[in-house]
Design goal:
Helix content: 55-70%
Distance between the termini: 143 Å
Number of helices: 8
Shape: elongated
Radius of gyration: 37 Å
Order of helices and strands: HHHHHHHH
Low-confidence stretches: 1-19
């Protein structure tokens, strides 16, 4: 039986991985090589740019934080959130601005403590290890701070929308055209004469 010697070298003509890809593979042994077959657009882009995908980054971070996870037990359960079913049912039944406001404010009041907690964490994350000092626009500290601000802005916008609906219903703006017509009519109408008993007679001094 003739044995074919096993060659450890790649066959002639086989494409060699680029130097950048070799370097990345050495830095990250589990770096996945992506081709165009059955891959997402991000994976294809990562293949052509010799960069890591989002999944790569999270996988490496999870691997490197295993010891940290062991020391700091973080809850796996999601944070408690209000059940939307009663609010959606009430919203569908609301027929007046007052009823709409009752439902909307009830939900905002129920969700505000949870959202404020998220805002507090994002604000603290923006200052992690004092990375916010001198941070440039678009940097992680600025993005975290903006995220916290936008959550508070979203709450304020929802409350403002509710107030606008109530104001339109209870305190609509005056009709400027009607007021203008009333003013013109009052200006063009001559003043009414005084009652007969108040007309000054001849030789009577005016007061």
């Amino acid at each position: 039986m003739i044995r074919t010697p096993v060659c450890s070298k790649p066959p002639r003509g086989a494409p060699k991985p680029p130097p950048e890809r070799k370097k990345a593979a050495l830095q990250h042994p589990d770096f996945e090589l992506y081709d165009n077959v059955g891959r997402t657009a991000e994976q294809i882009h990562a293949y052509h740019t010799r960069s890591a995908t989002t999944d790569d980054l999270y996988r490496w971070a999870k691997r490197d934080a295993e010891g940290f996870y062991a020391e700091h037990s973080l809850p796996d359960e999601p944070l408690p959130v209000p059940d939307l079913d009663p609010y959606l049912t009430a919203l569908a039944a609301a027929k007046t601005p007052a009823e709409f406001s009752a439902v909307t404010n009830a939900l905002l009041d129920a969700a505000e403590p949870l959202l404020n907690t998220v805002v507090d964490y994002l604000a603290a994350a923006a200052q992690w290890r004092r990375q916010n000092r001198g941070a440039a626009p678009g940097s992680p500290p600025k993005l975290l701070r903006d995220a916290a601000s936008r959550i508070k802005t979203a709450l304020a916008m929802a409350a403002d929308a509710d107030l606008q609906i109530l104001r339109t219903h209870y305190d609509p703006p005056p009709d400027l055209d009607a007021l203008t017509q009333q003013a013109r009519a009052a200006h063009d109408t001559p003043p009414a004469p005084p009652p007969p008993g108040q007309q000054p007679g001849p030789g009577r001094p005016r007061r």
